[in-house]
Design brief:
Number of strands: 27
Strand content: 35-45%
Structural class: mainly beta
Number of helices: 4
Distance between the termini: 45 Å
Helix content: under 10%
Shape: globular
């Protein structure tokens, strides 16, 4: 009896600590060195995964497990690869059916905060939430959340998304490579400015800002209305990538077509100034017309390669209510798949716009920006536009991943 019990105990222990190990080969197809290249592995075929370890030879590589559909099961493993030109590396991945995800220093940050008007200091809110949904007839969703919507950052950037019909991306510019939004909460105080913190660097109004996704009425962009409900939520907090979603249920995008449910997913990787945008619908939207683009910053210089890369460089006050700060110079960029472009619209006083569409239920694009305040970035239109051409080349030739 004791032997049987001991055997059963051993079997239970072995099952609980079951692990799977495999090799991931990552290759850089370009001649240029590349850092922080995302490697994302679906865990669908690996069963229950509770923790993971990634090694490059004898070196442990930070990794992240993400529950994408929020069902309490990890769906993806992510790590970042550094590769010299044409280099390829083997990474050893071990998945464990027990334990907890390993912890690593945070290189990204995301937060949602309920507004608290009783707090005197603008950047002292701590009413953290993971998700917020409102009905389409909510009178003022814009002021429900502190900094007016979810925000996220890498060491190089900081973005907030307005929680209203505009769903605009507004921008935070930095002087140094570091995480700052937990401290400033997008409203940098005078003492923080003296310490070298960044702040809001863009006035967006009703424009696209940096790549907001909108409808199109045949002549101009339309807002995300009417909707039955709108939601913002954080899917992943880091340490290597943040994932946030904006969900519009029952959006009547075109009056003569069925309403759609749309999910906009924004993924921000550590070490990146660009952000990935995934647009997903609950039905085939072939024949629908949408729009996106970037704001025409006052007096800005435009760049377009007429193949989906469009950008500008310009200077304006960051907002109508923060004139205590000086005018800010920014470079903006958007990169679309040519297959999704219906037309590239002429610039007007508000936007550099595209009319876009997709066959099926999904499309993707990328947005990117820089602030001239950066000690590490770009300080002229020509520098910015030259970098964007390289950015496009890297986006079109991602690292090659083989399991």
């Amino acid at each position: 009896m004791k032997l049987i019990c001991l055997t059963m105990t051993l079997l239970a222990t072995m099952t609980a600590s079951a692990q799977q190990t495999f090799t991931v080969n990552v290759k850089n197809p370009l001649k240029t060195d590349r850092t922080d290249q995302p490697v994302v592995i679906s865990l669908e075929k690996y069963g229950e995964v509770r923790s993971a370890l990634v090694m490059s030879g004898s070196q442990e590589i930070p990794c992240q497990l993400d529950d994408i559909n929020l069902d309490e099961q990890y769906d993806e493993l992510c790590f970042l690869a550094d590769l010299k030109g044409k280099e390829q590396k083997d990474y050893t991945v071990t998945l464990y059916a027990d334990g907890e995800p390993r912890t690593y220093p945070a290189r990204v940050y995301a937060e949602m905060l309920m507004r608290n008007d009783k707090v005197k200091e603008k950047n002292k809110h701590n009413n953290y939430v993971a998700s917020l949904s409102v009905r389409g007839d909510c009178a003022n969703s814009y002021n429900l959340l502190h900094h007016h919507g979810v925000d996220f950052e890498s060491e190089l950037n900081g973005i907030r998304i307005y929680f209203d019909k505009r769903q605009t991306l507004d921008l935070y510019g930095k002087f140094q490579k570091r995480l700052e939004l937990e401290a400033t909460q997008f409203y940098t105080q005078a003492d923080q400015k003296q310490q070298g913190y960044g702040d809001d660097v863009l006035w967006v109004g009703n424009t696209f800002g940096l790549g907001a996704f909108r409808g199109w009425n045949g002549q101009e962009p339309t807002m995300i209305e009417p909707v039955k409900t709108r939601t913002q939520r954080v899917i992943a907090y880091g340490p290597l990538r943040t994932i946030v979603e904006v969900i519009d249920q029952g959006w009547q995008a075109e009056a003569d077509k069925p309403a759609v449910n749309m999910t906009l997913r924004y993924t921000q990787y550590a070490g990146h100034r660009d952000t990935d945008v995934d647009v997903c619908f609950n039905r085939d939207v072939e024949g629908y017309r949408f729009s996106t683009g970037i704001i025409n910053v006052k007096g800005s210089t435009e760049f377009s390669d007429k193949k989906g890369l469009r950008a500008c460089w310009g200077t304006d006050y960051p907002s109508t209510d923060t004139l205590k700060w000086s005018r800010e110079t920014v470079g903006l960029g958007i990169l679309l798949d040519e297959a999704n472009i219906i037309s590239e619209e002429p610039a007007n006083k508000d936007n550099y716009a595209f009319v876009v569409g997709t066959k099926g239920q999904h499309m993707t694009y990328k947005v990117v920006y820089c602030s001239a305040n950066e000690t590490f970035g770009y300080h002229s239109a020509q520098e910015w536009f030259d970098w964007l051409k390289l950015w496009r080349k890297e986006a079109e030739q991602p690292v090659i991943i083989k399991l």
